[in-house]
Design a protein that fits this description.
Length: 139
């Protein structure tokens, strides 16, 4: 049965699509792969970064299928992205004005992370031979 599953795509409900796209597209370099515009408003999209896909949807505040979050909807949710070079992600995110954590080694990987506007935690990790608990510092 397990060979039938091909991919997992996290689906994030977002409070503000514009803020989310600013974070994911402008900040982290994701590209919009597919989109659904409802009455001229982008409500849903599929975003890709390398081989990773995430889905975002902002629901209507009123009417059918309405949903308004009580708080930060992503709090307590973490998604790990396995990368070739997590430090490159950290550099690019920092250059885009985001504030990812300083890369550290944990479980044989460089790890850097940050929260999106809704509180979803994104962690980027890449294998390394550096000692556990090492902290990356630019030369």
């Amino acid at each position: 049965m397990d060979a039938n599953v091909k991919e997992a795509m996290p689906f994030f409900r977002v409070a503000d699509m514009k803020a989310s796209l600013n974070f994911y597209v402008d900040g982290l370099g994701f590209e919009i792969d597919k989109r659904w515009d409802d009455r001229g408003v982008l409500r849903w999209c599929s975003l890709k970064l390398g081989g990773a896909t995430i889905l975002l949807q902002q629901f209507r505040a009123k009417g059918q299928d309405a949903w308004v979050p009580d708080g930060r909807v992503g709090e307590g949710v973490s998604i790990f992205f396995r990368c070739e070079d997590a430090i490159a992600i950290w550099r690019a995110a920092t250059a885009a004005g985001l504030e990812p954590s300083q890369p550290e080694v944990g479980n044989g990987s460089w790890v850097t992370g940050l929260d999106d506007p809704d509180g979803y935690r994104l962690e980027f990790e890449s294998p390394t031979d550096a000692p556990e608990d090492s902290v990356f510092e630019e030369d």
